[in-house]
Amino acid sequence: MKKRIISLLLSISMLATAGFTSCGKKSAKSATANDPHTIVIWHDKEDAVTDVLKKKLKTLEPDVKVVLEKKSDLTESLKMVGNDPNSAPDMYIFAHDKIGVYAEMGILEPITNLISKDDLSKFMDSTVEAATYKGKVYQMPLYYETLLFMYNRLYMKDEEVPKTTEELYSYMKENTGGGHYGFAEQHSTPYYATVWINGFGEKILSKDGKAKLNTKKVKEALTYHKKFVELQPGETEYATVNTLFSEGKAHSTIAGPWMIPTVKEKGMDVGIAPMPVIDETQKSLSPYMGVQGVQVLKNAVKTKKASIKKVLKVLMDPDVEIDLAKASGCAPAQNACYDQDEIKNDNVVMMMKQTADNAVPMPNAPEMDVMWTVLGNLMTDINLSNKDIDESLKNAQAKADSLIKSMK
Amino acid sequence: MRKLKKYLSCLFVFAMVLGLLFPLQGKVQARENKEEMSLIYANVPADWTNPNIWAWAKDGKTAFDAWPGEQMNEDKNNSGWYYMYIPKWANHVIINSGELQTKELELKEGNAWLTVKDKDNTEISTEQLTKGDLPEYVKTFKVHAKVEDSWKDPKIWAWSAPDGKNAFDKWPGKSMTKGEDGWYTASVPEWVNSIIVNGNDGDVKTTDVKVDPAELWITVKEDGTNELSYVDPAKANAPKIKVYVKAPADWKNPNLWAWSAPDGTNVFTTWPGEALKKDENGWLVKEIPGWVNSLIVNGNKGKVQTKDISVKKGKNVWVVVDSKKSFKVYYKEPAIKDDASSNASSSKSNAAPIVAVVALLVIAGGAFALKKKSA
Q: What is the model's pLDDT at position B347?
């Protein structure tokens, strides 16, 4: 099975490489492919993040020159050129959830071949777990993100913040009406739905890449969740829900940390609180955790190992993660950062740390691509089309099994 | 997480399409949060009861939704003086009370004390004419109430529960001002979370109504039962209108941005709005809610745009844009001569050579076939 996936990916890669190399525009890489002192890093980050990284990487010059190259289509580009040393970057900075795809393609170098076990032990266990695929660690974590429970203090006072989901439900019943909502979430988009499924102790994809949708726990989670959905708007999209919250139509929400600057800009006194505990399971609502970090391309290690190790070493400095937290609200991946006052006093970062204690690393297996689609349709069937839950789960399981099988 | 963001970005595009189904969410509630405010005091003659303030900027932007504006607060420590905080940019005001009103008064920057002698004579001072500390600025929100005619002189009583802090000195509370749309309006402090609307000096009233501190509309029946909404019912029930546009040919993929002024309710969630689609007559068209009174046509992903275009509410409108600075507005379809400057016409003119070439090929092919047949 694995060989078939790899051969398919390689074929795509070769075709794409041919296509890419015929194009007129050259990336920074093509000019520096054989220069062991120049490292090209692809990323998709905002300026606030890259400014911090650039400043630190500059300290390596003139010994090593690092070129940070922003790629909006990073994941697809890597699939296309990951095997071509003339076109691929030497390293890339991205979330951990694509590691499985690239590991299966055979283009990633295990990070443990480049940093010591002692160094790796400095990172939070959950971030290293996220970076691990089939027993190998492929990423040096930099920071992580989780969804957060946020509330508008104009409406929801600190003492009213629900500690349990039943308290949340009572609050919703009391404060929903006339176009305002006590709570609004992207209830039928898969990433947000997994907050509830994880909280019921289920993982929708097993470690060996099998779909787990038609299970007792998923049924319990989605059945319980539906009563919350009924007190929310029918729309479940990113813009709609975020607008409801940011424009003062929803008292509380579950959203990413990237939402905070937007609502603060609008003058909202936004509060952040721990995820409510599900009364039925006594576990918190559990979002996925996304870990952003550095991955190294296998081809680059052949010719640039020394320089790559220097880059990793310099980015391992806890000050980099602290600066990233200050610049962009990123939660540091290294334990030591949380001893620093600058981090301890950052409410958003500390709440992400607290949420991360119960968060589930987002699966990094290639099969997860299938699961997003199938789970999205399942949520639509149950929440928006009011289809029978047993039948919907059965159909979703069959669909996921079929799609995963055809992947292989 | 990146995958998620990518996934969400797809959903975001889809959500924009749904924007019209959910048009009332774009309220720019934060406007007041970031504005600098000026304190306006008015001393009015004794027969000017419950004076209101109407305020606007030179460009016509108004500080209040509808005439006669907002009822001013009585300063208990300075007899005869009333005050109100208004946005700093609103430097034109009229003080009014029923049929009485001042002339347009132009203010200098900062706080102002207006001594109204009569409707034609008002002295304006930037020196403090009242005694004691100036009142603290308290954010407020508007309560609109529609009551039966039998409810005379509607008032609002407001407080914070459960601590019981009252917004007004004594029952039955603050008078509500009747607007041209028939709704009575009053502002209450943002810390309020409970209200009672009453009439006939408190003899008729609603029950306690728990509210969010956000602009709201409450429809009260004769028996005091009521329906609360945070969405302006007039906007919610307004029929849709169509906007027809001709845009300059070099404005790629023209979009429409639409909103209601002065409250700032947007139709679409994000700039540059939504795409205009060409109809069979060559007009670029978009259907939007009928409560819209302001438009911007833009192109090239919002990089070129018109100025704000004021339009009448509830009417289909035709907008012919010649350039960023030049446009014309019609309420009946104008007879526009197609030329190269419009998208619609340019599309037609671009198509013409293609049609001609195809026609020539058909003719040539036919001639060849006839020739071959005859041979």
A: 32
d(CA A366, CA A347): 34
Count CB-CB contacts under 10 A for residue B366. 10
3-state secondary structure of B57: coil
B282 Rama sector, left if φ>0, alpha if ψ -120 to 50, beta otherwise? left
* Residue A117 pLDDT > 50: yes
Domain with CATH 3.40.190.10 in chain A: 2-145+290-361, 148-288+365-407
The overall average pLDDT reported for chain A is 90
- Residue A286 sits at the chain B interface (C-beta within 8 Å): no
Sequence letter at residue A52:
V
Does residue A145 sit at the B interface (CB-CB below 8 Å)? yes
Q: Which residue of B has its CA nearest to A236?
A: B15
Second CATH level (architecture) for the domain B1-31+239-375 = Sandwich (2.60)
What average pLDDT does this structure show over B118-141?
95
Helices (H), chain B: 2-17, 31-34, 233-236, 343-374
- Number of C-alpha atoms within 13 angstroms, CB side, residue A270? 27
Long-range CB pairs of A333-337 (<8 Å, 24+ gap) are A333/A123, A333/A124, A333/A127, A333/A141, A333/A142, A333/A143, A333/A144, A333/A291, A333/A293, A334/A122, A334/A123, A334/A124, A334/A141, A335/A122, A335/A123, A335/A124, A336/A122
- Say if B35-137 and B140-234 have the same CATH topology: yes
Is any Cβ of chain B less than 8 angstroms from the Cβ of A267?
A: yes
List, as one string, the DSSP characters of B105-129: EE--SS-EEEEEEETTEEEEESS--
CATH fold for the domain made of A148-288+365-407: D-Maltodextrin-Binding Protein; domain 2 (3.40.190)
Going by C-beta distance under 8 Å and a sequence separation of 6 or more, which residues neighbour residue B371? none
CB atoms inside a 10 Å sphere around CB B42: 26
3-state DSSP call for residue B201? helix
Tokens encoding A74: 């990073």
Domain over B140-234 is classified CATH 3.30.40 = no
* Angle formed by the axes of helices A74-81 and A2-21, nearest 10°: 100
Q: A277 forms bridges with which residues in the sheet?
A: A164, A284
* Percent of chain B whose pLDDT exceeds 90: 60
- Which class does domain B35-137 fall in? mainly beta
Strands B327-330, B284-288: pairing is unpaired
- Residue B18 with chain A: CB contacts under 8 Å: 235, 237, 240
Q: Is the peptide bond before A85 cis (omega within 30 degrees of 0)?
A: no
Report CB contact under 8 Å: A97, B22. no
| pLDDT value for A29 | 61
Tracing tokens 């190259």 back to the chain, one arrives at: A69
Q: A154, A194, A372: which to substitute to probe chain B, counting the most B Cβ within 10 Å?
A: A154
Residue recorded with tokens 């001893």 = A339
Distances (CA, A) of A201 to A215, A360, B243, B333, B350: 11, 10, 52, 62, 61
- State whether CATH 3.30.70.1230 applies to domain A2-145+290-361: no
- In DSSP notation, B288-327 reads E-TT--EEEEEETTTTEE---EE--TTS-EEEEE-SSS-E
Selected residues 213-242 of chain A with any CB under 8 Å from a CB in chain B: 233, 235, 237-240
Spell out the domain ranges in chain B: 1-31+239-375, 35-137, 140-234
Task: Determine the average pLDDT of the residues in A275-303.
Answer: 95
**Which of A284-298, A338-352, B207-221, B258-272 shows the lowest mean pLDDT across its residues?**
B258-272
- Tens digits of per-residue pLDDT, A1-38? 444 444 444 444 444 443 333 333 445 666 677 788 99
